[in-house]
Amino acid sequence: MPALTAGRLRRGLTEPLLPVAALSLLAVAAAALSATVLCWASVGALAGFALSGSV
Q1: Helical packing angle, 17-32 and 36-51, nearest 10°
Q2: Which segments cross the bilayer (predicted)?
Q3: Total tally of structural domains belonging to the chain
Q4: Spatial distance between the Cα atoms of 36 and 24, rounded to a whole number of angstroms
């Protein structure tokens, strides 16, 4: 098993897969429940995350 270094830990914590997946699931769940405001809020959060340069 490779050693956990600071660089590897930082890359793992800043990987955009987890927040994008969580926000996408939230958007789909909100759309399925007809929660329009929550759906658009999660889509807006995804757009903001993408535009921030974090992706």
Answers
A1: 160
A2: 20-51
A3: 1
A4: 14
